[in-house]
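S.,

Sequence below, as promised.
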Amino acid sequence: MPVVESRVTVPVPVEVAFAVSQTQGATRKRWDPFIRRQHLIDATVPAKGVRTYTVQRFGLAMESEYVSYNPPSNVGMKMTKGSWFFEKMGGGWRFTPVPDRPDHTLAVWRYNFTCRPAWLAPIAERIGTVVLQRDIDRRIRGFAAGCVDPVVLAAIDV
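The prediction came back faster than expected:
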């Protein structure tokens, strides 16, 4: 199963970093270049078991479910419905204080996936790794920018 990972250190405490990562609506779109549209399904706040509908910037849609939600340290998700070429997809975001700088956070985002159909998976997964790595790198850079954006920071409740 291919895995892609990206990491960044941001100059905010772990509680703030986590809160930024869970913003919704216009605040989320301000920092997240991956999202065209996103909303929670039958919920008003994220939590384990809550589903999310996401349309990414190229128009591909996916429904996912939080399989873990542990503020301020981590969240995990799995795709429940998605694009025809993903057999499985999941991801997790971890937030840990930087040991010698407690006002800084190390964010590590990791995704895994498998592609279908099986006969195309070896090629599709190699291509998918490159494309998804580029997207996750771009997305985590946006997250880092959001962690220092006064508009984003004003929108969170920490």
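DSSP finds four helices and seven strands in the chain.

Coffee later?
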